[in-house]
Amino acid sequence: FKQTVDRYVGEFERLLDDKSASVRKNAAWGLGELGASAEARHAQAQLRLIARRDPDEAVRLAARAALEGTK
Q: Which residues lie below 8 Å from residue 21, measured CB to CB, with a gap of 6+?
């Protein structure tokens, strides 16, 4: 199970840099859904940056919600 979670976290982290706001929003949501796994917690720094700086409000909101899920 851990290998699967690690793989998804890496993919979601990569997608947080996508051009599409919809893709970034869904990647943030996915990280939040993975919960407090060690790898998902590793993504918190990137989620915090996105929550503050992404140009799309929906992406910022999804990143904030994901941060709540990765505590």
A: 54, 55, 56, 58, 59
